[in-house]
Amino acid sequence: MRVLIISRFCASPVYRAKIAALARQPGLEVSLLVPAEWKEGAQLFTCREGEEEGYRIFTGSLIFNGRVGGHVYGSGLRKALQEARPDIVHMEEESYSFAAAQVLFCLSMLRTRPKFITNNSENFDIALPWRSRKIEKVVFRRADALLVFARTARARLLRIGAPPQKVRTLPQFGLDPKLFRPPEPGERGNVFSIGYLGRLVHSKGVDVLLRALAGLSGEWRAQVVGDGDERETLERLARALGIGDRVEFVGWVDHSDVPGYLRKWHVLALPSRMTAHWREQFGRVLIEAMGCGVVPVGAATGEIPHVIGSEGFVFPEDDVEILQKILQKLQNEPRERERLAQAGSRRILEEFTWDVLADKTHRLYEDILAR
Predict the structure, then answer these.
(1) Helix spans in 143-215 (H)
(2) What is the phi-psi region of residue 269: left when phi exceeds 0, alpha when psi lies from -120 to 50, beta otherwise?
């Protein structure tokens, strides 16, 4: 079976781990088309053509680079289709994206049309331009499968008329359990530690965490890892709350350094809040934390409650008092904390390693190809 995956995400090496895991699946020949350059905010990712860990990389130039849902390939797509000769084209873009429409058009010109899959992570009823709405309807009709990351994304597709028989749920975020592993003895200190890792923006609700920490009794420390527009505001808030000396703002770190921070924490907090145009689509840091034996605590918004499951705690969005009570409970009950940490680690090994997800994806490909 030959599969061509088209993904702007995989311009970043972090996301290519799942492509390598897929390439290890027996009987699966994987090729990858990525932008030669992809702009993600202030970051610029570059990628070169060649062989990498058992799969071939094609690159192409983009028109409207950096526009999520609005970019198309100026080059590279035709070459990838001709040389990869895929049985399945797996498009890691939303069904309403211009790139999805471009790929569908190119597939219609082929003598033998491959099966076509799109990824869908959008879980919010956003107001799409008429062109995007029309593209989405065409993709719904012509795609062989509409892959969703999570339950809330599935619910959105069904609300707007996607054929239920085409919608398949399969997480797209995984991890390497050798990197995201529980701490060795002595690697985590005895002082109760709480961490946050992510963007420092209003939608992430870090201010809620700081206010909850201010009401926490006993000995504790906290780290805020990440950067964003609200960093200075949050640092001032920590000082105003009298906890500036116990909360360390680390700044942005490379993804390779993330496990080292997570293994120092007992609890990870993800206090995201829904805005007019966004709600949490998954929360990758939650599974990374659980892999490192950290108890996740998150706001009841978007996909967070489903990712945390019974291995952590969920609190009402923006509710400082309940978050503070949860943190206090976890500080006061180390045995319960350890029970949850071990349960989370087991679940990650069962559901979220790259090899587990690759096996599930392979079986999905086989099912779609057999239809």
Answers:
(1) 151-159, 206-214
(2) beta
